[in-house]
Write a structure and sequence with these properties.
Bound molecules: glutathione
Shape: globular
Radius of gyration: 19 Å
Structural class: alpha+beta
Distance between the termini: 42 Å
Strand order of the largest sheet: 2-1-3-4
Number of domains: 3
Oligomer: single chain
Helix content: 55-70%
Number of strands: 4
């Protein structure tokens, strides 16, 4: 059985990491039996989660996990999309993962008010005398990563400008490729009916609907 290495549930989410959540959703969508293990971070081959162990084959990174499932379990997560739509879907995926993610990372880890409510609690089990040191060290590393990516070089106002630009992106009223993709996943026209469809589907595969609702709401007209 596949083992998915995760951080474990936090903040009422299946996992605080969007990439771990993505990998778990892919496993559920593929209908492949799996178990989760929260003890793998120190052995992570790329120093990040998620990764999987599939009968001894270690696959790190959510995109390689996806490719592994597609290749070895005959799943096509983009079934029904034309080649052009697959291109748009991939571009969107990478927009979220390689750009928008970093805005969220900054908001979560660097903005004090958010950090105090959220990631600071990850360190609750660290012995009290060491805790401030460990928190400062990890936060420093996150800051370095943000700087290395480039997102961390923008002002907060600039990051908000970027995030807002993505948040207001909607399926256009002309019938472009995006419209068709969104209508396939049920967002855009016939919204109420569409939300019910999504709700039913995510309930079937056991994902909390709230996550999808928040996402879908940001796309609504
Ligand atoms: N490209 C990777 C990104 C994974 C990733 O960034 N994971 C973060 C959590 S959201 C992580 O493990 N960070 C730990 C660290 O950087 O030390 C994927 O798609 O799986």
């Amino acid at each position: 059985m596949i083992t998915l290495y995760t951080f474990g549930p936090a903040f009422g989410l299946p996992d605080p990491s969007p990439f771990v959540t993505k990998a778990e959703v892919l496993l559920k969508m593929a209908g492949v039996p799996y178990r989760t293990d929260t003890t793998g971070f120190n052995k992570a081959p790329k120093g990040k989660l998620p990764y999987i162990d599939d009968g001894g084959a270690i696959v790190a990174d959510s995109t390689f996990i996806r490719m592994h499932l597609e290749k070895n379990y005959g799943v096509d997560f983009d079934k029904g999309l034309s080649p052009a739509e697959r291109g748009v879907a991939l571009a969107f995926e990478k927009l979220c993962e390689d750009h928008l993610y970093w805005v969220g990372l900054h908001a979560r880890w660097i903005v004090d008010a958010n950090f105090n409510k959220g990631p600071r609690t990850f360190f609750d089990n660290v012995p009290a005398p060491l805790r401030p040191l460990v928190v400062a060290m990890v936060r420093r590393q996150v800051r370095r990563n943000l700087w290395g990516h480039g997102m961390g070089r923008h002002t907060i106002a600039e990051m908000e400008q970027l995030a807002h630009k993505y948040a207001v992106m909607k399926p256009s009223s002309s019938s472009g490729g995006l419209d068709r993709i969104f209508s396939k996943i049920g967002i855009g026209k016939g919204k109420e009916e569409a939300m019910e469809k999504i709700k039913k589907r995510v309930t079937e595969i056991g994902i909390p609907f709230g996550i999808f609702q928040a996402y879908a709401n940001s796309l609504r007209d």
